[in-house]
Amino acid sequence: MKKLVSMILILVMALMSIPALAETEAYGGIEGTIYWIGKMYEGDGWMAITDGAKLAAEEMGLDVSFTYPEGGELDVAGQINLVENAINNGAAAICVAPNDSNALVAVCQQVVDAGIPLIMYDTALADPSLQTCFISYDFYKQGVMAADALNEHFDGAEIKVAVINATAGNEAHMNREHGFTDTIAEKYPNITLVGEVLYCDNDSVTAMNQATDLMSANPDLDAIYACNSMAVEGVAPAVLAQGNTVAVVSCDTSDAIVQAIKDGTIVFTSTCAASAIGYLSIVAAAKVLAGEELTDIEWNGQTFPLDTETMTYDSGVYGIDADVVNDESMTYLFRPLTWFDTYEGWEW
User: Fold this and answer.
1) Which of 15, 58, 212, 219 has its CA 20 to 30 A from that of 305?
2) Rounded to whole angstroms, how far apart are CA atoms 250 and 69?
3) Whole-prediction pTM value?
4) CATH assignment of 139-271?
């Protein structure tokens, strides 16, 4: 645990102490509009990703259009329409976090056919050959970390765990699910999965009802793994209402998740440098439009390496538990929006 805290502290102090690089100021002459298409504008994580992108656009003097499908992460058709509109409006570049990795392949092929640079972020496209580059973090690793943390919490004892995921068509959510279930199957014969994986359609009320039903039908249930913020924000209060007799492991952070960790309901979650994902997506688009070769990107004292084989930037994954949330120096990691409250000149 001390090693985990030390690694996080290094990241946090880097984010807090060093201003954005002046190199971003050289891109104000780029013509045209970059269309930045998100999954949704809800939850601290997605708001931080968006704010990171807006900060980069402001610093670089770029014209960026920020849009989101009206129905959020479940609105695949709406997101496809946004990409089509960007193409028709003559976008200089398009940045997309796909709500469905397979369903967006066809419209992303249209982007490439139109000669428009395509920057994917957060979630990969099913056909990676279409994307100019990809900015994200390891969702599968989050599932692995959750399984490891669960086993450690119970000291390797025999336990039963259920899984509540968000959506079945979202690559990020499925990787989190498979990272967890694969790790249990490969490493932990002492952990038994109860029933089928449930999907809450990214709705916290549905997740709450599913968790309540699971605990009623399985009085010997020891734990629930919730794969994203919307799922765990429903699972945690359901478990709390039952007296915290079931341990919860999850992914993502928010004020509600942090409080549930402090209450002892959630024993572990994980997160990324959310603002960096948004920031890097705009910087990458600008570099491509300026005719530059993509290389490692530095921001706020941290280097985000480019895997030149897959053209992927990794923002990293960080574990969060009671030791971390009770350390005020870690606030900038588990409450990502607070970083912008202290950033000099930030007015979004």
Assistant:
1) 58
2) 26
3) 0.74
4) 3.40.50.2300
